[in-house]
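Tokens help. Consider this.
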Amino acid sequence: YFQLGSASYNEKNYIKAADYFTRSITLSPKYKQAYYNRGLSLYYLEYYKRAINDFNKTVEIDPLYKSAYYWLGASHANLNENELSIKNYTRAIELDPEYIEAYYDRGIINSIIPDPEKAINDFSKTIELKPDNPEYYFRRALVYYSIDKFDESVKDNTKAIELKPEF
């Protein structure tokens, strides 16, 4: 059932995938990967609360499963539960200090709250980890602009354009 679920997931048939992963869980209730994969399927179906349940079960079985914390953060973000989102992105980062997607997404939440200093720190870390991505400079430029640091915003936007002229 797990393999059928994986095949359905890869075909973007998330309803079928979730069903197969549920069958896999029924047969093996401690199979963390089945909970995680069903959580992803539910996430893409926009059933965020149900996805949260599966990602929580994943980390209950394996408290070091960094990707489950990341997707918990994403699920909570989609429910506008910013504090829980940040908490889970932070846990993913604690488990992997180079988890660039977690820094980026936490930066987005911090810019929404707004907590510009934390957002700038997160986007700066993404730039440190991957200095050739124009999106990271652009996001940090937006935060700088929002706090009237126009020179820094111009520098970051200029760098983004330098990296990707059509940006």
Observations:
- The mean pLDDT is 98.
- The two ends are 44 Å apart (CA to CA).
